[in-house]
Amino acid sequence: MSETQDLTLDEIRALLAPILPRHAAFDGWRPQAVAMAAQEKGVDADVAQLAFTDGAIGMIDAWFASIDARMMDALPPDRLATLSIRKKIIALVEARLALLAPDREALRRALAVLAQPAHVVRAGKLGWRAADIMWRAAGDTATDFNHYSKRMTLSAIYGSTLLVFVNDDSEGHADSRAFLARRVEDVMRFEKTKAKFRNAGGGEHLSLSRFIGRLRYPAI
């Protein structure tokens, strides 16, 4: 009896997700990639297809979720604890790049799928999810407007870094790491300037932040 026949569809998604990109690099984010991954893991092909009825976007979502999980395994809290916020964020993004590096062609194809108008909303949610997980790993506990602005900013930094990364042939992806460091430095400089302005301007504007902080962003 196959060890995989009693798995739920969610468990099959999680099982196949890390190996989908190696097949998507050749077959695209299409059912053929699911079939090849299923064969590799000994999963019934028809059942595997049921786990990805949302097509390419669902396959990419599952892959990115596996990257989220492996990033957390690579950088547990005790390894991040002694780092500054800036170094934590850089370390977390670099860990993601290292995990994506073996599958850059699949990533290139995935970004093309996510750039399609029909997938813009889902792409935004995936970017937000990655940013949220990284900020939480970095120890962020903000609940006011900063909760949202931090995630929006990191999502933009991560997305732009990926666009550099997919075409980066420098040794050890040094160009991507340098680009990331510059973007983070720019944001940190801006945050310092904003903090000075806020301190000089009094606290009357905070009521809006408190209101927004009570809202919950849409579930992903």
From TrEMBL:
Domain called COQ9 C-terminal: residue spans: 123-191
The record's section on InterPro entries has: COQ9_C, Ubiq_biosynth_COQ9
Please identify the protein, giving its name as recorded. Answer: COQ9 family protein
Does Iron count among this protein's keywords?
Answer: no
Which Pfam families does the record match to this protein? Answer: COQ9
Pathway(s) it belongs to: Cofactor biosynthesis; ubiquinone biosynthesis
* Species: Sphingobium naphthae
Key words of the record: Lipid-binding, Transit peptide, Ubiquinone biosynthesis
What is the role of the protein in this entry?
A: Membrane-associated protein that warps the membrane surface to access and bind aromatic isoprenes with high specificity, including ubiquinone (CoQ) isoprene intermediates and presents them directly to COQ7, therefore facilitating the COQ7-mediated hydroxylase step. Participates in the biosynthesis of coenzyme Q, also named ubiquinone, an essential lipid-soluble electron transporter for aerobic cellular respiration.
Q: Does the keyword Acyltransferase apply?
A: no
Q: Which domain of life is it from?
A: Bacteria
Question: What does the sequence similarity comment in the record state about its family?
Answer: Belongs to the COQ9 family.
